[in-house]
Write a structure and sequence with these properties.
single chain, mainly alpha, 4 helices, 2 strands, 49% helix
Length: 72
């Protein structure tokens, strides 16, 4: 959430801490939904979170497991 919300006290730290990490990040639908809920009053933040999901920079565990060739 701090990466998306520029007014968050830890925004700069979160941005720097994740700058050298490689995508995709993994999460679950519940965390993505909760992030959108908690950021609902920050202009454009829900779109930013969903943009990360749509661009596959954030993948949900469910979608990874659903399409994994290792799952029978």
């Amino acid at each position: 959430m701090a990466i998306v919300n520029r007014r968050e006290a830890f925004h700069q730290w979160a941005t720097q801490a994740t700058a050298n990490l490689s995508y995709p990040f993994f999460s679950c639908e519940a965390v993505i939904t909760e992030a959108c809920f908690l950021l609902q009053n920050v202009y454009g933040s829900e779109d930013a979170v969903m943009g990360l999901v749509m661009s596959k920079k954030i993948n949900s565990f469910y979608s990874v497991l659903k399409w994994s060739p290792l799952i029978f």
